[in-house]
Amino acid sequence: MAARGDFFGQLWKEYAWSDSRYLTSDPFVLCMETVTAICWGPLSFCVALMITFQHPLRHPLQAMVCLGQIYGDILYYATSMFDHYYKGVTYCRPEAYYFWGYYFFMNFIWIVIPGYLLYHSVEASGRAFQALAKQSKSEQDNGYTKKRN
Predict the structure, then answer these.
(1) In sequence order, what are the residues at sequence separation of 6 or more whose Cβ sits closer than 8 angstroms to the Cβ of residue 119?
(2) With 80 as the cut, is the pLDDT of residue 121 above it?
């Protein structure tokens, strides 16, 4: 990406001011971005369609994508902090704008929004299981369930 002169190449280089690992082919960043591009990106579009059509598998898939995003972001922060505190390597420019604006805020969004959506999905799944348990109990109380062999 660093050699590209198009819009996305320029965005990539601009973001690299906050994390130079994006320009150095860092193994963690390459693996993380590959998983994001191959798994989380397409699954996010799938979840968006499921939300649009109110598909019943929306919440399980949404929870999976959200957990993946949160996990990736935590690893992203953790590997950078580990290198900073244990190896003395800093990947960000010294200006506060790049650290707080790009590195912290632009990545923190990927914790806050998936965190909210994960909470919503867990709540919806809990309500679904509660309704199923209530329905099953009601059917048992009314004698509608068949005895198992």
Answers:
(1) none
(2) yes
The whole-number pLDDT of residue 59 equals 96
What angle is formed at CA 134 by the lines to CA 130 and CA 137, rounded to 5 degrees?
Answer: 140
Q: Is the pLDDT at 112 greater than 80, yes or no?
A: yes
Measured in degrees and rounded to the nearest 5, phi and psi for residue 83 equal -60, -35
Are residues 117 and 66 in contact, defined by beta-carbon separation less than 8 angstroms?
Answer: yes
**In whole angstroms, what is the distance from residue 93 CA to residue 98 CA?**
6
pTM confidence score:
0.82
pLDDT above 70: residue 110:
yes
The single-letter DSSP state of residue 55 is -
| Phi then psi dihedrals of residue 143, to 5 deg | 75, 25
pLDDT range class, residue 128, cuts 50, 70, 90: very high
Tokens representing residue 10 in the block: 């320029």
DSSP reduced 3-state for 148:
coil
Give me the numbers of helices (H) and strands (E) for the chain, helices first please. 6, 0
- C-alpha to C-alpha distance for 101 and 108, rounded to whole angstroms: 10
Helix or strand run (H / E) with residue 85? none
